[in-house]
Design a protein that fits this description.
- Helix 2 crosses helix 3 (55-64), helix 2 (34-47) crosses helix 4 (92-102) and helix 7 (154-167) crosses helix 8 (174-190).
- This protein has helices at residues 16-27, 34-47, 55-64, 92-102, 105-122, 136-140, 154-167, 174-190, 212-224; strands at 2-9, 30-33, 67-70, 77-80, 83-84, 129-133, 144-151, 203-206.
- Strand 3 (67-70) and strand 4 (77-80) form a beta hairpin.
- The chain is α/β, with parallel strands linked by helices.
- The chain has a single domain (2-224), classed as P-loop containing nucleotide triphosphate hydrolases (Rossmann fold).
- It contains nine helices and eight strands.
- The strands form two sheets. A five-stranded parallel sheet has the order 2-6-1-7-8, sandwiched between helices. Strands 3-4-5 form a three-stranded antiparallel sheet, with helices on one face.
- Bound molecules: cytidine-5'-monophosphate.
- Cytidine-5'-monophosphate (C5P) is lined by residues 12, 34-35, 38-39, 98-99, 102, 133-135, 184, 188.
- Cytidine-5'-monophosphate (C5P) binds at residues 12, 34-35, 38-39, 98-99, 102, 133-135, 184, 188.
- It catalyses: dCMP + ATP = dCDP + ADP; CMP + ATP = CDP + ADP.
- Its EC number is 2.7.4.25.
- Residues 6-224 form the Cytidylate kinase domain.
- Residues 157-187 are annotated as: Disordered.
- It is found in: Cytoplasm.
């Protein structure tokens, strides 16, 4: 078991990013947002005016894309070909296309290799690393010392995503966001490669009725008793 690695998986809107960052800060760990990586390469595909369904072209564009991940939990960043794309990757165009791009096996192979490289570097750091995504406990680091799978009802998740959109200056549309949450759940859980699912040995936490502090309290308990 890799004691220095905490893997947090689950669908969108479970509060995963917020609690991952806060947990990393508290542990003095670095933070890796793998969703931001899939979003950034999706932006590269859209900028190249390639259809997300055109697998050969998607693979070509993603191979040529250069990603640089900033892993400070207080101010995580993602650079695509040297340019900060942190805002743009949260917009509706990327959100609409990311599940298609992330279903491509070659895209996943490339990003998983980069994730493992970053995780390997973090293992020599005293605080370790908190990694969030969909397949971290199942595929990327099955040896993680603590694996957590966050869930919540789809309406609770849509409400959180909408509140987050509004607070970050985007348009909030609850019905549209709810439909999008359900659409991405179906795509992410139904895909052939690395589908979203709980690892057998992951701790499952339903956050429907928990606030951020409540989730963090649970996580800290389990961090202390991790392998
Ligand atoms: O976490 P976030 O909502 O930013 O992730 C965006 C999308 O990236 C997900 O809907 C999923 O399609 C993809 N993803 C993935 N594997 C990961 C992280 C994200 O397929 N480890």
């Amino acid at each position: 078991k890799l004691r220095g690695v905490v893997a947090l998986d689950g669908p969108s809107g479970t509060g995963k990013s917020t609690v991952s960052r806060k947990l990393a800060s508290a542990l003095g760990a670095i933070y890796l947002d793998t969703g931001a990586m899939y979003r950034a390469v999706t932006l590269a595909v859209l900028r190249a005016q390639v259809e997300p369904s055109d697998v050969a072209e998607v693979v070509r564009v993603v191979r040529a894309a250069e990603l640089t991940m900033g892993t400070d939990p207080e101010r995580p960043s993602v650079l695509l070909d040297g340019q900060d794309v942190g805002q743009e990757i949260r917009g509706p165009e990327v959100t609409g296309a990311v599940s298609a791009v992330s279903a491509v096996a070659e895209v996943r192979d490339q990003l998983v290799a980069l994730q493992r490289e970053l995780i390997g570097q973090a293992l020599s750091e005293p605080g370790g690393i908190v990694v969030e995504g969909r397949d971290i406990g199942t595929v990327v680091v099955p040896d993680a010392g603590l694996k957590v799978y966050l869930t919540a009802s789809s309406s609770a998740r849509a409400q959180r995503r909408t509140a987050q959109d509004v607070s970050e200056g985007r348009t909030g549309d609850l019905d549209r966001t709810h439909a999008d949450v359900q659409r991405r759940d179906a795509l992410d859980s139904g895909r052939k490669v690395a589908p979203l699912r709980k690892a057998d040995d992951a701790l499952e936490l339903d956050t429907t009725e928990l606030d951020v502090a409540g989730v963090l309290e649970q996580l800290h308990k389990h961090v202390e008793s991790r392998g």
